[in-house]
């Protein structure tokens, strides 16, 4: 539902941050895509085209068995049982951050939906895995899968049926974006692959994954209207990501196509608007792109409080509302009784409700969730064993054992340590600084980021502070640490277990002491290991006026002054960065005393051990940057909008497909360290590129139309049959499916019955829908996934130690407006010293196609295409033609 835009002058809006301080003036080059059509497709106030009806699932492919099971159940359900499965019970009414109603009559439990993408949030005795951005840095599909699987087991053992992750939106349009670290990389191809393998890993355990946030959720500022008031802005709707059709397909929706192909059970639509229509109510995004083009067979849930209407959202493709209530804890719902009413009054057709419920149950059966998972044995709303059963309404409504404190970690610490080391990118290594030998006469560890938070590893709720070492960012994307091994602890153990000399200073302001220690290290020819960080997170928390998004790209905790202090006297300064993304480090690259730089990201609970493994050479670094590090924020050509430009802030994605390295390449800006860059303790050489054209069927655009929408069972249309059962005890503010009264009007529960009644043309027509050319079940037109080329190359380890190399394949699509190169393949391989390995890549049709906005389909253009294989987006060692 789009509210009319009031013609408020921009000047009429508050222009202040906290304490009346103005936001820093951001000046950056307005990097506009060279393609005028793309720019024209990213304008303020543009609208989303309507697409109805909402495609009903067909149970195609791998989903067949799950659909059969689901349909058998749906046939037996009453109207309110169906509604129950689509609706959350309300904020803090049950154990999980989101929990749907169940069907007690048939022994079907409500689904337990729980954050986060790094572990089980809001409970104890769980692991905190490295963040998505670290998985991005591994460029390792196996590790993405293994991490997903380990997280899936932990969710399962806590009784969670849906893990709310992984993340491909925010993709990372601007480095300042607060939640970028939850995802993998601003490159859609790299993200897509790691996203898909994470999903496969999670779902292999019987837990459903949730591909989120769909789509355009690229900044925290203005994602929610009440939140914006907290930082001084009165906006009338969440901000709108205005994205042209080509960029949507080639960049933002791209990884979500991989998720559908991987069989993800659920999607979460995002808070933001897209083209001025709520993402959870945008028929073009949900009905057209997701459910028709990508042929998604699972269900779409809203982000928490992101549902903005009932009937219009349902008709636009939303299947489940979370957390169920309209505003947290208000006891009202756009679904629940309103959905029951909408079906009874004929507004929502039965086929649509049946489709919603079938999709939800099929997601559960797809992963065999029904067979595997016990009920939740924890409660998100208290750490204590005993507590209120319905936390929101307090102990009057029942108390009991709500937390069984089940330790679900197995030995995942080992994998976490492995991923931590495998995701550490070596950016600089001069004068033989690394690896360390542990024979250093004096080892100094300096920096607040090396130490612990004096109030404990979980001392700040939702990790909403930056004190001590940074293991994870803040918000809903984190979990409670079972322990957090600081670099100080791990390196101290390393050195002192061999009775070496070790001193650490974790107070960045202890200038005098740091200066003295640095000088002593130099005279002893030792090493200064310096730790620094930069944090970000979700918009409901701010740290130092970083309202989710970072307000700058410099280091935090006063680290720059500390590093200047150390490097002025310590001639062997090794800098380790725990940052959520790119930071400004050009001055360190060029500083002779900074002999090495490592980016370690957000490594999770094994942080110290993982960095020690790399520093001391037990692990040879093989990670590569999953984003570009530029000299200054203006180099990226994209930025967060910090001050509303309209009452509905307009985020115009005028750079189109030119994110990150594509932008640096196109504008000829030299980065500090480019996308894909990373050193090793050994060296690699590339040779012998071979390109083989495979025989493939010609591409056939889809056509025709669907079968009519099925309905399952019949609905008793007498309103009196749907009131609360006799004698039922209602928990206050709990969302039930039943009516309060046999009068639909009275049950609606608010004045203005009918304000929810926008019914777009064609939206209730269940006779058929026509298939878009690019469409096909489970990931789009099958021709898109067909391999067209095989590319091989030889990689040789030319150094003296074994190591991992990530061979990267880039394609030049060759069009006038195409990026110089785009990533289209990567393989991480371990190679013994002096040995060679063959790396092999397959290019699918999609990988060499472009989105044609006129044909509304993917096409392989006539432009001459090239393929490159190399070490980074700028070290393209080998080159060949794609005929
Ligand atoms: C957004 O609007 C642009 C410009 O009209 C259009 O090309 C694009 O397909 C729209 N996308 C969505 C999701 O509505
Ligand atoms: C809906 O779910 C709730 C919570 O699981 C349950 O108490 C209620 O009985 C369910 N309603 C129906 C109609 O099954
Ligand atoms: C916000 O703006 C709306 C109209 O745009 C106005 O009705 C409301 O009073 C404003 N609220 C605040 C807190 O300024
Ligand atoms: C039905 O939805 C309207 C908003 O459209 C809301 O005001 C009302 O409280 C809802 N009714 C119930 C019973 O949740
Ligand atoms: C850090 O060192 C400075 C300078 O010596 C001192 O003023 C400050 O109190 C110290 N902070 C802590 C937390 O000890
Ligand atoms: C640092 O200076 C010391 C003392 O002059 C010297 O022994 C050592 O080799 C120097 N280290 C580096 C990395 O330059
Ligand atoms: C950037 O923000 C961080 C975190 O708020 C702050 O510590 C740092 O001082 C800021 N940098 C500059 C140059 O103001
Ligand atoms: C590097 O360290 C030495 C001390 O070993 C110092 O004399 C020199 O000024 C430092 N260089 C820089 C650029 O700070
Ligand atoms: C209710 O269902 C009966 C039987 O299917 C049908 O004849 C009747 O018209 C329906 N009434 C309404 C109000 O839809
Ligand atoms: C039907 O019910 C829905 C409640 O969800 C309401 O919004 C709509 O206005 C009603 N339509 C009619 C025609 O009564």
UniProtKB/TrEMBL annotation:
<dbReference type="InterPro" id="IPR013783">
    <property type="entry name" value="Ig-like_fold"/>
</dbReference>
<dbReference type="InterPro" id="IPR036881">
    <property type="entry name" value="Glyco_hydro_3_C_sf"/>
</dbReference>
<keyword id="KW-0378">Hydrolase</keyword>
<dbReference type="InterPro" id="IPR026891">
    <property type="entry name" value="Fn3-like"/>
</dbReference>
<dbReference type="Pfam" id="PF01915">
    <property type="entry name" value="Glyco_hydro_3_C"/>
</dbReference>
<feature type="domain" description="Fibronectin type III-like">
    <location>
        <begin position="805"/>
        <end position="873"/>
    </location>
</feature>
<dbReference type="Pfam" id="PF00933">
    <property type="entry name" value="Glyco_hydro_3"/>
</dbReference>
<dbReference type="InterPro" id="IPR002772">
    <property type="entry name" value="Glyco_hydro_3_C"/>
</dbReference>
<feature type="region of interest" description="Disordered">
    <location>
        <begin position="34"/>
        <end position="57"/>
    </location>
</feature>
<keyword id="KW-0624">Polysaccharide degradation</keyword>
<dbReference type="InterPro" id="IPR017853">
    <property type="entry name" value="GH"/>
</dbReference>
<dbReference type="Pfam" id="PF14310">
    <property type="entry name" value="Fn3-like"/>
</dbReference>
<comment type="pathway">
    <text>Glycan metabolism; cellulose degradation.</text>
</comment>
<comment type="similarity">
    <text>Belongs to the glycosyl hydrolase 3 family.</text>
</comment>
<keyword id="KW-0119">Carbohydrate metabolism</keyword>
<keyword id="KW-0325">Glycoprotein</keyword>
<dbReference type="InterPro" id="IPR050288">
    <property type="entry name" value="Cellulose_deg_GH3"/>
</dbReference>
<protein>
    <recommendedName>
        <fullName>beta-glucosidase</fullName>
        <ecNumber>3.2.1.21</ecNumber>
    </recommendedName>
</protein>
<feature type="region of interest" description="Disordered">
    <location>
        <begin position="759"/>
        <end position="778"/>
    </location>
</feature>
<keyword id="KW-0326">Glycosidase</keyword>
<feature type="region of interest" description="Disordered">
    <location>
        <begin position="697"/>
        <end position="717"/>
    </location>
</feature>
<dbReference type="GO" id="GO:0009251">
    <property type="term" value="P:glucan catabolic process"/>
</dbReference>
<feature type="compositionally biased region" description="Polar residues">
    <location>
        <begin position="700"/>
        <end position="717"/>
    </location>
</feature>
<dbReference type="InterPro" id="IPR036962">
    <property type="entry name" value="Glyco_hydro_3_N_sf"/>
</dbReference>
<dbReference type="InterPro" id="IPR001764">
    <property type="entry name" value="Glyco_hydro_3_N"/>
</dbReference>
<dbReference type="GO" id="GO:0008422">
    <property type="term" value="F:beta-glucosidase activity"/>
</dbReference>
């Amino acid at each position: 539902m789009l509210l009319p835009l009031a013609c408020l002058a921009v000047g009429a809006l508050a222009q202040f941050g906290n304490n009346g301080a103005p936001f820093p003036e951001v000046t950056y080059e307005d990097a506009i895509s060279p393609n005028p059509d793309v720019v024209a497709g990213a304008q303020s106030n543009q609208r989303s085209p309507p697409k109805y009806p909402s495609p009903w699932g067909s149970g195609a492919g791998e989903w067949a068995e799950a659909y059969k099971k689901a349909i058998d159940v749906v046939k037996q359900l009453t109207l309110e049982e169906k509604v129950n499965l689509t609706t959350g019970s309300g904020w803090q009414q049950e154990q999980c951050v989101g929990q749907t109603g169940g069907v007690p009559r048939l022994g079907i439990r409500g689904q337990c939906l729980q954050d986060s993408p790094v572990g089980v949030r809001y409970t104890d005795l769980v692991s905190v895995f490295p963040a998505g951005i670290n998985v991005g840095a591994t460029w390792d599909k196996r590790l993405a899968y293994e991490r997903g699987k380990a997280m899936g087991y932990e969710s399962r053992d806590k009784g969670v049926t849906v893990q709310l992750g992984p993340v491909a939106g925010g993709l990372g349009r601007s480095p300042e974006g607060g939640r970028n670290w939850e995802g993998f990389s601003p490159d859609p191809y790299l993200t897509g692959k790691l996203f898909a393998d994470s999903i496969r890993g999670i779902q292999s355990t019987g837990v459903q994954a949730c591909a989120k946030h769909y789509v355009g959720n690229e900044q925290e500022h203005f994602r929610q209207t009440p939140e914006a008031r907290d930082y001084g802005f009165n906006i009338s709707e969440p901000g709108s990501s205005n994205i042209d059709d080509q960029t949507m397909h080639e960049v933002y929706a791209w990884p979500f196509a991989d998720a559908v192909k991987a069989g993800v059970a659920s999607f979460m639509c995002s808070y933001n608007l897209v083209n001025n229509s709520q993402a959870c109510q945008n028929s073009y995004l949900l009905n057209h792109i997701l459910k028709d083009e990508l042929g998604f067979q699972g269900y779409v849930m809203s982000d928490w409080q992101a549902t903005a209407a009932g009937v219009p959202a349902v008709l636009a493709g939303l299947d489940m509302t979370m957390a169920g209530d309209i505003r947290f804890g208000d006891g009202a719902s756009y679904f629940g009784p309103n959905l029951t009413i909408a079906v009874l009054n004929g507004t929502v057709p039965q086929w649509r409700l049946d489709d919603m419920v079938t999709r939800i149950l099929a997601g559960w059966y797809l992963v065999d969730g029904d067979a595997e998972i016990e009920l939740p044995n924890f409660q998100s709303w208290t750490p204590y064993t005993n507590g209120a059963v319905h936390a929101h309404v307090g102990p009057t409504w029942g108390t009991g054992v709500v937390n069984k404190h089940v330790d679900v970690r197995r030995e995942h610490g080992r994998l976490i340590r492995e991923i931590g080391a495998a995701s550490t990118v070596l950016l600089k290594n001069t004068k033989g600084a690394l690896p360390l030998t542990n024979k250093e006469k004096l080892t100094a560890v300096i920096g607040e980021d090396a130490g612990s938070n004096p109030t404990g590893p979980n001392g700040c709720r939702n990790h909403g502070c930056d004190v001590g070492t940074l293991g994870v960012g803040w918000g809903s994307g984190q979990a409670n640490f079972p322990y957090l091994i600081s670099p100080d602890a791990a390196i101290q153990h390393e050195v002192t277990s061999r009775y070496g000399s070790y001193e650490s200073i974790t107070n960045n302001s202890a200038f005098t002491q740091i200066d003295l220690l640095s000088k002593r290290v130099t005279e002893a020819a030792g090493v200064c290991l310096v730790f620094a960080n930069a944090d970000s997170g979700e918009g409901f928390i701010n740290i130092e006026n970083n309202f989710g998004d970072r307000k700058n790209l410099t280091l935090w905790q006063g680290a720059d002054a500390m590093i200047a202090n150390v490097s002025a006297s310590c001639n062997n300064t090794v800098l380790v960065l725990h940052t959520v993304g790119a930071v400004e480090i050009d001055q360190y690259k060029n500083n002779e005393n900074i002999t090495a730089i490592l980016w370690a990201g957000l490594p999770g609970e094994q942080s110290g051990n993982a960095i020690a493994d790399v520093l001391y050479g037990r692990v040879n670094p093989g990670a590569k940057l999953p984003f570009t590090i530029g000299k200054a924020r203006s180099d990226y050509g994209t930025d967060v909008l910090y001050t509303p430009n309209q009452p509905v802030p307009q985020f115009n994605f005028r750079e189109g497909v030119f994110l990150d390295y594509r932008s640096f390449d196109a504008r000829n800006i030299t980065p500090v360290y480019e996308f894909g860059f990373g050193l090793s303790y050994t060296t690699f050489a590339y040779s012998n590129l071979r390109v083989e054209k495979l025989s493939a069927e010609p591409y056939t655009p889809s056509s025709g139309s669907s079968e009519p929408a099925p309905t399952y069972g019949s609905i008793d249309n007498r309103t009196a049959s749907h009131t609360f059962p006799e004698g039922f005890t209602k928990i206050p503010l709990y969302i039930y499916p039943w009516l309060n009264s046999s009068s639909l009007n009275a049950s609606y529960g608010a004045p203005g019955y009918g304000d929810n009644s926008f019914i777009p043309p064609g939206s209730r027509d269940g006779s058929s829908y026509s298939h878009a050319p690019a469409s096909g079940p489970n990931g789009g037109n099958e021709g898109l996934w067909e391999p067209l080329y095989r590319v091989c190359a030889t990689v040789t380890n030319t150094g003296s130690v074994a190591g991992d190399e990530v061979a990267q394949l880039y394609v030049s699509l060759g069009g006038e407006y195409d990026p110089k190169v785009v990533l289209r393949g990567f393989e991480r391989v371990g190679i013994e010293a002096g040995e060679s390995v063959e790396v092999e890549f397959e290019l699918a049709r999609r990988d060499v196609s472009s989105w044609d906005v006129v044909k509304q389909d993917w096409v392989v253009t006539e432009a001459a295409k090239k393929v490159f294989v190399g070490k980074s987006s700028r070290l393209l060692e080998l080159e060949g033609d794609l005929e």
